[in-house]
Amino acid sequence: MRKLIFPLAILLFTFNSCVPEDGISIGVFSETDGKVDINELFTIESVLDKVLEFLPRIPNEVKRLKNVIESPEIPRVDIGPHCSDPYDCDFKGTCWKHIPEYSVFDISRLNKDKKFDLYNQGVLTLHEIDLSQTNLNPNQVLQVESIILPNYRPKVSVTRLIMDFNTCCF
Hints:
Helices cover 36% and strands 6% of the residues. It is mainly alpha-helical. It folds into 2 domains: 2-60, no CATH class; 77-148, no CATH class. Strands 1-2 form a two-stranded antiparallel ribbon. 6% of the residues are buried.
């Protein structure tokens, strides 16, 4: 919900701080025990106080963003978790050009902070990962080893082969 406050504050600023009569609310999916009642599917929560609290910061933020856009120079900001928080940045394609096609950011289910820890240590590719010093789960180790080790064959024991008639017949 926190991610929605900034865009709502910008909308309110854009409309000259004219608060709608019924306030500003968001709908959140209600917790259910498996039974769905269409009339209780959403919980409506007022966020007017939070938006009004954030509103005084908006004029300075708008000025700052305009200055960035109008500047002839690209801002000197390294990539980080801010690139996708709260949304993916439109300049991600520019700032991330130095990241290889397959990098530490492609390790499955690796926490975003761990990915950026590796990046900040100068580790970009899977070949640069020191598996003895990096805490990865077995599946992540398997993913890395399958890329970095030539002719890598995971140890898999197949005890049963199941073929689906619809899948294998054409």
